[in-house]
Structure formats: C-alpha cells, structure tokens
Amino acid sequence: MSENKEPHVVKFVYDFTEGNKDLKDLLGGKGANLAEMTNLGLPVPPGFTITTEACKVYLDSGAEPAALRDEVSAHLDALESRMGKKLGQADNPLLVSVRSGAKFSMPGMMDTVLNIGLSDKSVQGLAKQAGDDRFAWDSYRRLIQMFGKTVLGVDGDLFEEALDKAKEAKKVTVDTDLEAADLKKLVTTFKKIVKKEAGRDFPQDPREQMDLAIKAVFDSWNGDRAKLYRRQERIPGDLGTAVNICSMVFGNLGPDSGTGVAFTRDPASGHQGVYGDYLQNAQGEDVVAGIRNTVPLAELESIDKKSYDQLMQIMETLENHYKDLCDIEFTIERGQLWMLQTRVGKRTAGAAFRIATQLVDQGLIDETEALQRVTGAQLAQLMFPRFDETAKVEQVARGIAASPGAAVGKAVFDSYTAVKWSRSGEKVILVRRETNPDDLDGMIAAEGILTSRGGKTSHAAVVARGMGKTCVCGAEELEVDTKRRRMTVPGGHVVEEGDVISIDGSSGKVYLGEVPVVPSPVVEYFEGRMHPGADDADELVEAVHRMMAFADRKRRLRVRANADNAEDALRARRFGAQGIGLCRTEHMFLGERREMVEKLILADTEEEREAALSELLPLQKKDFVELFEAMDGLPVTIRLLDPPLHEFLPDITELSVRVALAESRQEPHENDLRLLQAVHRLHEQNPMLGLRGVRLGLVIPGLFTMQVRAIAEAAAERKAAKGDPRAEIMIPLVGTVQELEIVREEADQVIAEVQAATGTELKLAIGTMIELPRAALTAGQIAEAAEFFSFGTNDLTQTVWGFSRDDVEASFFTAYLEKGIFGVSPFETIDKDGVGSLVKLAAEAGRRTRPDLKLGVCGEHGGDPESVHFFHEVGLDYVSCSPFRIPVARLEAGRAATQSEGSDHR
C-alpha cells in the first residue's frame, strides 16, 4: 500500500513572532534579529519578513513566487488587525517601511522605503491622527522622494535641488524649519518630478506602493553598489536578500520624538560606556545623511530620562544575550521607545581584540569563542605603523594599497641610490615604474616602495608584503622618469630625487612632504620591546598577547618563516617562527655575487666552471653558518637555486647596443661579443618555463653539489661549535621522480664526503617543492625519493591556471574581479577548487607512499588567513610565510583548529 504524503509547502513569509536569530540564512540578519528582539519581549514595532528564498525565486525567474502575494496579504491582514488600522486608509492609515536585510550586513548597499501607505487622501488622515499637519506632509514628501529614487529610478539630485529651492524661498537652512504649507507645495513639486522623469504618476494605491517597493528591494541585491560591496567583502552572490515589512513608528513628531544609533561598547576602542548619537524630531535616514548635527547619546538622559533608562537596560539585555558588541537603531515616538534593529556591530581591529578578552573576563564567552571573534587580517592592521590622522596633508595621487603601513622618505629612483642613501642614514622611498628582482637591495633599504604600474600581486607588492614593507602600486597618475630622476604628479608639480614624500599602504594614498607616523605597539610587543601593561596601548598589547597565547596552545599547524639571511631569521624567531620553511638561495647571489654566477653559467671549460664554483662555495657556506646560528635547534629548509636563467645574465638588448656601438667606434669588444653570443644561445622565450630549478642543476655540472657541500660544511661547523643545525635540502621545480633521484644521489655522495672529512654525523633531510601539476599528480612516485614536500603554491597557481604572474594582473585581472570570475586573486588566496585540489591529492598520495612524509607550504599563501584554514583542513604539518606574517599565521592556525573542534562536536 503506497503511503500518502502531503506535498512540501514552502513558506515565504514569517511574522516577527515566528523567527529567531539563528535563521539568518532564511530571514536575513535584520529579520532574524527583529524576531529575536520580539521573542525577548523588547518593544519592536509589529511586522513580518519575506524570506531570502522568495528573493532567489524572483532573481532566477524574473517573477515573484506564485504564492507570495497571498502570503503577504494574509500577514498584512494580521498586522492591520493587531494595529487597528488599515494600510493607507483615509481616516486612520497604517504606514509601513519596506527594508532590505541580507544574511550579512551590507550597510547602505541595498534599498529601503519608509512611509509606505501615504497618498493624497491618507496624508489628511495621518495629520488628523497625529494632530500635526507639518509632520504628515513631511512624511509624505519623504515617501515620494525615497520611492521616486529607489523604486522608479528618478535621479535623487532632482529632489534635493527642489528641497534646497524650497529652503531658499523660505530663507531657512534646515528642512525642519519648513512649515506645513511649504511641505505641501514640495509634495506637488515632487509628484511633478516623478511624472516627468518616470513617465507615470506617483502611485496612490498603498498596496501597489508596497508591492513595487518589495520588488525594488529584491532588485537592489544585484545593484552595482551591492555587487561591488559583496566582491570586496567576499559575500557570495547567490544568497539573496530578505525584505522586512514593519509598521512605522515616527521620530519626527516633535521634540518628544527622535531617532538614534547606539553601541553597547565603543566600536573604535572596545571600551564600555554610553556610545552613539541621537537626533530629536527626525527619522532614521536623517542621522545617516547628516542633514542635522546629532547630539551624543548620553544627552538623551537629560532630554528623555525614561526612554534613556529603558534604552540602557535594553542594551545590557542585548549584549548579554548576543554575548557581543551590539549595534542598535531605535526611535522614540512621543516618549515611547521602539527598537528598529540590532546586529553584532562592526568594530576596529583594536576594539575586536579588546572586546574578545573583556567578554572572556566577564564570563560571557570562553577563550575558544574569543578566538573566533578576532582575525588575522585585524592583527595585520594592528601591526603596521600608521599616519597621524590629525596632520595636515597634501595628497597628490592614489594607487593600489598593496602592502599596509605608513612610510616617509626621500624619493629615489634606482636601487643603488636607495642603498647608498640608506647607508648614510637617510630614509628613502624607492620610486619605480615597476620593480624587478634586481631592485631587491633597494627595496630592502627603502622605507617603502611606490610604483606607477602593477597591482596587488606584482613583484613590488609580493616582495613588499613578504618583508612587511609599505607599498603602493599602480599609481597611474604619476609619471615616473627614472632617467631624469623625477616624477610628475597631477597638476604638473615635479618631485625631484631627494624630495620627501609619504605613502600610505593601507589606503594607497601618496602625499607630498612628511606626514607624521604613529608606531604600532603591537609590533613592539612581538619584537620584545613592549610588555603588557596598564595604559591604553598596553591594554591592546595585553589583549593581543592573550589571544596569541591561546592560539598557540590550540593550533596543530606549525609556522615557519621564509627567510634568506640571519637578520630576517632572528626577527622571524622573535615573531614566533618555529623554523625556516624557505631559504631562497638565489637571493644570496644578487649584487656583486651575480657576476660569479654569470661566470659559472657561461663557463666554456671545466677549469672555468671549477674556478667559479670555488669562488662561490665559501660565500655560500658563510651564509648558511649564519642562518643555522640564528635558527639553532629549529629546522631550516634551503631551496637550491631556482630562478629563471635570464635573471643572472645581462640584458640582451643592452648588450647588443653595447656591441654595436663598440663596432661602430672600432673599439675592442671581444668579451662583450663572446658574452652576447652566449646570451643568444641561452635566450628563452618563456624563462619561467625554461632552464631553471632542478633543470639548471642537472645541466650545469657542480652547481647543486656546490650548494649541498656548503650546507653540509656549514652544518658540520655549527655542530663543532656545539650548535644544533637542522638543515633540510629542497630541490625545486621537480616534475618527475627521476630528476629527484639523480640530484639526491649526487647530494648523498657530497654529504658522505663532508661527514668523512669532518668526522661529524650529519642528518640532512632531502625533499622537494611541489609546484608543477605533474609533480602533484605523480606525488606518490616522487615521495619514494623525498622525505618532505613543500608546496610552492605561487608557481603551482601559475602553472595550473596558465597565468604569467608578472603579466596577468596588469592585463586582465581587474576585469576578472569586476565580472565576478574571481572573488579574490588566486595569487592572494588559494584557489581551493583547482590548485587546492592538487595540494590535497598530492598530500594524500605522498603519505600513502611514505606515511611519515612531512608536508608544508612555502608559497605566498602560507601567510594568507583563508588559505591557512585550507592547509589545516588538508592535513599539512606547517605553513611558511614572511617574518612579518608569522603572527597572522599563528593566530589563524589556532582559529582553524578551534573551528575544526566545533565542527567535530556538531
């Protein structure tokens, strides 16, 4: 016998009495919180919520769900019965607001219409009901203005211009000084504007007003500003918005009425107290629009003590209930307090850390929950120095905020000058059209980097973030002339080399002259120069200290540093690094050593090659000794030489010009000619996919074995000095296990020779980077010859997507972000579906072959908060990032661990 089942009926409308704060997916944040406050018995004007599901149907099909109109009618009938009024009736009108309300707060991004239900007839009834003609006509003009702009698409400036003319005619400056007769005339003017611009009359049917307003709110989900905001905040585009229909309460009924915004704590500092603004005789949008000056919320006590006391009690109730800072909107209607909205309030980074620890101390939340209340992005904000906001400044340009912070210095236009001036004690800003690896010395020496080209993943941006260096990229308004050592700013002003400029890496702004900088106490804490104390700065340090200590206790992922010298290694260790996950040996070959590598690459005979290697070996060994000393007792993963060949060779164009000029002048040029022939022979169309990494080590005999010998001898020397070196040798760009096997065999032989020569036992792990799709797909085979994998997610992203990292951002990344193809650059946050899938696959395959295989990541993603959570989920052992990002990675690793615990418990 078949079982009869009733068809599932989808419910599209919920009364405020039916929902709760846990239904944000369905009712949106505003609707869920209005329902929650109703359940708590707080004074919320009655109303109902149309769900996000109804919005999704509308957006998918272009039409509202068939059942929606009847459901809205049923809830409207119930609301009218409860209020004893009818929507828009002539003698006793019910008025409602129609407000958006998505799951995530999107302040000001979507639409709201107040005073729905007013018409030429009902405005008379409202005047009689309120005993105030002015109030009624003011409410009506507000409706036509909001409805015309929001629903009918009329240019809002037309209404504002008409309002300004009315005030000029009356010789007043604020709209509250307009009288009923003035506002009645303004209503007539507004209706004419609607008729002319929208091609239709302002609707007099109150139900038509409400239905059109509902559709307008649905449509606003896909408005330009809403889409832009979602991209910036990484809010999914398929959530839809709820619509809240709420009976109107009026703050513009006279001096015993008003509207305001309140916070249960200061969102800027986190301190407890009375924070917010209040405006008498006003509706909510007046506070936001800044039409009139508000008064501090504390003054409400002297204006209306009864409402003030009730509000304070409600604020305490809400904070204890939500266990967090609450942002509250309220209206007072002739002495009656009404709650219009509450939500967990946005806060500054400093306030987030303070509030989290305060709530723990008050027993409202535990440390696990507190850790979820702060983020790595907030911690990063706290670590960067910042400009004094009170200073007078002259802004001349704005670029891309590539690496946060505030930097002041003399403009210099090449790396050599940056280093020279810096060594003389000058603070400099390196200004370039764009940077390249040869600029590294100058970037290190500079206080900050400014480029007129490039974006957030350009060379300048990536390196600057890695060093914790302030950087503004892509300031296209600037004309940078490196030959004449100057740049021209908008307006024609010329900045010569040596002129002082200031750049703000948090906003992308560029200033002339020196803007005073305020240091970050949080960095001083991580550097060991500041300890938790009692004053305001120390209070923040105390909060950060407590959150970091808890994160360290909870996290499973270890955090290492990307560091290439002892100075960076020591700083990383102070910041909490548990080793070095990536030492890029190519950075040790820049500057004067570059010529030695050039000799090695261009050597024609074995003697020439041996001479070049002999010259490099002691320098490399010294580098490694210093590194092992700085990181004594902790693992140090050293990547053998990796960059494209062309980075060590002269520029082919410059060399060709030099040879041609020498020939025309009949000057000796044999060496340059020989060099040019070699460069032509080695020239590559796509060097990033050419002779680099393991391929270079296999083609140039002795290169990798020289580096392995330097590592082994350095480790032996440190052991002899009673140190505890823990070196790991990493082979880059491996695509097949055979490459690794050949290099490993040679490396093992060198290590054995050093052991025999020094009488020191050396345990040097040998592993590889997984940075090619083929390596990830054959990871099970590669693990047979590797003791560890480190995922090079920068190159893996390039090769999976087929992107040239140096080119794509400038050419089409902006368009991809604007069109929503990317929510965020895949070089900034790991592409979980593509690149992430290969990481997961390789990790699982590698451990099937070698269960004790150590797994880490050393790409740029190692310090990205969202990516750290992914690496925790797929079971990596550690992440490695720039020294400055180490605290961020530590915090996020702790947050990832506590989130996993919560998922397991559920």
From TrEMBL:
Positions of the Pyruvate phosphate dikinase AMP/ATP-binding domain: 68-293, 299-350
Catalytic reaction equation(s): pyruvate + phosphate + ATP = phosphoenolpyruvate + AMP + diphosphate + H(+)
UniProt-recorded Gene Ontology molecular function terms: ATP binding; kinase activity; metal ion binding; pyruvate, phosphate dikinase activity
UniProt-annotated binding residues for Mg(2+): E771, D795
Annotated PEP-utilising enzyme mobile domain residues: 426-508
Enzyme class: transferase
Cofactor requirements of the protein: Mg(2+)
Enzyme Commission code: 2.7.9.1
Pfam family, one: PEP-utilizers_C
InterPro entries: ATP_grasp_subdomain_1 (IPR013815), PEP-util_enz_mobile_dom (IPR008279), PEP_util_AS (IPR018274), PEP_util_C (IPR000121), Phosphohistidine_dom_sf (IPR036637), PPDK_AMP/ATP-bd (IPR002192), Pyruvate_phosphate_dikinase (IPR010121), Pyrv/PenolPyrv_kinase-like_dom (IPR015813)
Binding site for substrate: R584, R639, E771, G792, T793, N794, D795
UniProt domain PEP-utilising enzyme C-terminal: residue ranges: 542-894
KW Nucleotide-binding (keyword) present: yes
Keyword vocabulary terms for this entry: ATP-binding, Kinase, Magnesium, Metal-binding, Nucleotide-binding, Pyruvate, Transferase
Active site: H459, C858
Keyword field contains Metal-binding: yes
Gene3D superfamilies: 1.20.80.30, ATP-grasp fold, A domain (3.30.1490.20), ATP-grasp fold, B domain (3.30.470.20), Phosphoenolpyruvate-binding domains (3.20.20.60), Phosphohistidine domain (3.50.30.10), Pyruvate Phosphate Dikinase, domain 2 (1.10.189.10)
Membership in a protein family: Belongs to the PEP-utilizing enzyme family.
Protein name: Pyruvate, phosphate dikinase
Source organism of the structure: Streptomyces fodineus
Taxonomic lineage from the root: Bacteria, Bacillati, Actinomycetota, Actinomycetes, Kitasatosporales
